[in-house]
């Protein structure tokens, strides 16, 4: 039987110092049983995303190595960026890929969360499928207030951590550890420097404001180019596909006379999401994934 594969996608609060994230990437590559699939960094967000896979025990060791490297190198008291954050290692999600169930990922999240708290003295909040209470399921609710607001927030019994000390780590803050289905980090860049336009479009698009269900969105400035960004997480690409998100952002942007100048995908995404977008824009009337040569060959092998 093929070995178990679980995906882990840690987000770390550093995207500007190449020597820092290069050292972290090298450390993860050296962990036995783990395959690093992708790593990206963004200077405006000041954030890096790593994507690696392996069986549960190997991933647990990879997270241990990650914290060993990150804690001496990243100090949130000196960190700023467009993306909200509460931890040096901000979030550690686990996603079932092959021969793994969501319950396997929940169990792993609990084990890893406990390990982080005990070995590194960083408080841990469990989220999504691993959440210990309904009000902790949404990552944005846990992160609200960010690193600077953690000391006061954690005084509230509703926001005591699931593991670890009752106050944030002085330089590393806190971490959210969870289990979830595949998420697509998708950003659309707009041809304007007016951040209010991006914020208004994000408000119109995100589900919590009455927009598209399964979309989280915020408007952020881009310091390195004359543009602003609608930065999004698509938490269920099957029920709210990428092309629908793109078209709604484009329609809202037209209200302000603003063009879309590009988009980007952070990390990896399921092939199915791109194929559905291609079928939509090509108006393929007889669309089926089996029309793709590679899919057909794999199905027959």
Would you give an account of this structure?
With 301 residues, the chain is α+β, with helices and mostly antiparallel strands. The chain has 9 helices and 11 strands. It has 2 domains: 175 residues, Formiminotransferase-cyclodeaminase, Chain B, domain 1, CATH 3.30.990; 111 residues, Alpha-Beta Plaits, CATH 3.30.70. Strands 1, 2, 3, 4, 5, 6 and 7 form a 7-stranded mixed sheet that branches. Strand 3 and strand 4 form a beta hairpin. The two termini are 16 Å apart.
What count of structural domains? Answer: 2
The residue fraction in helices comes out at: 25-40%
Work out the number of β strands: 11
Gap from first CA to last CA: 16 Å
Overall mean confidence score, pLDDT? 95
Quickly describe the structure.
With 301 residues, the chain is of the alpha+beta class. 36% of the residues lie in helices and 24% in strands.
Any key phrases for this structure?
301 residues, alpha+beta, Formiminotransferase-cyclodeaminase, Chain B, domain 1, Alpha-Beta Plaits, 2 domains, 7-stranded mixed beta sheet, 36% helix
SSE layout:
Layout: E1 5-8, E2 11-12, H1 18-29, E3 35-42, E4 47-54, H2 56-73, E5 89-98, H3 102-120, E6 124-128, H4 139-143, H5 146-153, E7 175-179, E8 184-190, H6 195-205, E9 215-222, E10 227-234, H7 242-255, E11 260-266, H8 271-282, H9 293-300
Parallel strand pairs: 5-7, 6-7
Antiparallel strand pairs: 1-4, 1-5, 2-4, 2-5, 3-4, 8-10, 8-11, 9-10
